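Next comes this protein:
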Amino acid sequence: MSPARATLVAGAVVSAGTLLLAGCSGTSGTSSTSPDSINYALPANFTPNWILPIGTAAHLNTNNISIANSLWEPLVAYDGSTGKIAWNKNGSVATAAAFAPDGKSVTLTLGDRRWSDGKPITSRDVEFWFNLIKANKEQWAGYNPGKAPDNWTSFKTVDDHHFTLTFDKAYNSAWMLANELSAINPLPQHAWDKTDASAAVSDADRTAAGAKRVWTYLNSAAKNISGYEKDALWKTISGPYAVTSFSTAGKVVLTANKKYDGGEKPDIATVNLLPFTTADAEKNALRSGSVDYGYIEATDLDQKDRFTAQGYTVKPWSGWAITYMPYNFNNPSMGAVFKQLYARQAVQRSIDQSSLAKVIFNGTAVPGYGPIPQAQSSDFLSPTQKGNPYPFSTAAAKSLLTGHGWTEQGGVMVCTDPGAGASQCGDGVAKGTRFQMQVLSQSGSTVTDNMMSAIQSSLEKTGIKFTIKTAPVNSVLSQTPPCTASQSICAWQLSFFGTAGSWYFNAFPTGDSLFQSKGGSNFGSYSNPEIDQLITASTTSNSAQAVRDYSAAVAKDLPVIWLPEPDYQISVVKNGLGGFSQDSLANFHPAQWKWNR
């Protein structure tokens, strides 16, 4: 959901419903299989809605990031596209990063590259991005107080192809490279440094006030989705593809950038990114042969042979992710309840993750008990998280509540002993408060609907009323932002946007965006000073133990409701399409796709 490179994926594989004709216009029911084109199915009900390679809170999804990175290559492409999470130099503008021996600065070298209009890519283009982010950090989804750009104290241009970033202290260089430098996108300063469409290049971004005006102009232009095709802003690119069309319904057509001079030269001339409102619609397109690279749900694995008989290969796409429902700790009616650890423990102990993973996800998910991905082994996972500190037991969950001043009335727990004592409901929980909460969940997903229904039934046994409201995932994101109790938008209580995983990490799965106080994607406004210290330690220490300490503490403190971590998707790929690995960070990389000729 996306934010440094860590990304809000916000649910990808969804189903149920009817075929979206308008959203799939252009497929004509026929296969695109040819050396010159490919039809790629975007996650259902999750349409691209942003082109600017700077994420903001309402535009955090990997579709947007993948498209933007195809147009404007990142400084450091740190991803899993080569089969392991590492620096993919072929897809990067930088060719080298030399860290100072004291760990307090880094000098980066740019390749000899040019923008599509022939102008050279220089250190000035990186500084342009740097100044925009410095002046507008609160609006940047990747911002976490104390981290980039706060911890970058200076930008010094050495020459057109070298610059030095100085830090406020020593950092783990591997973390800095993978999680912060990978967030930088060189931008065409000569074409974008303006405050309106007709203005000449002003160099305004060298002042904070100027950078704010430029930011406003760029973001305003990026909101005009229907104008992407013609707006000259989006024509000056550095990546392997250009945008030919970008529909408000979600269909995007990319064409190979003939001026591209980087290391990932595109093999396929036209890439059609196709939107679907449901996975059933997408599945029908697969059956008709009009999708070359698509997906099925876990519930459809019994149909695998049908797709292989049609010339497809079925392969799971595993993700470096966690899945969760954030609490809104500032919700006026339930925030005080959510702030009680025992209450969060009762909720967590009511979630039967093993059964959800086995039955709802058909074995294509693993239980997740904390902030570190558990589908893949790593040195970051603590024994505490791995061992599940809150095993499923509705009886134990109910005891937690009755032991803290709650009494079951009409099947719902009610606070009958308010106060802050050890056996009372807790500070701020009023007498008569009913333990009832509502989730705003992404719509259109059979898997998600089934999981929410199972959770509802389980919580009911504990005496917790759980109601479910659904909306398209982009709407879920926009309706459940960080907020204060006095704001009308703060009526939300729980949010779910993770059918295919809620949050995809960088190589280092630190919690600065998610669980640090005022983190850029800390939707529920969770705050714990001890966790903040552990997050800081995880980014500065060279020892994996620092991340394990963080893993254990967050697993026990329950800032969110942990849920099973599914595969990103069960991919269905037309035979003959290859040349790539499925990126565990959930990006797609069309420049790597190749048809066997």
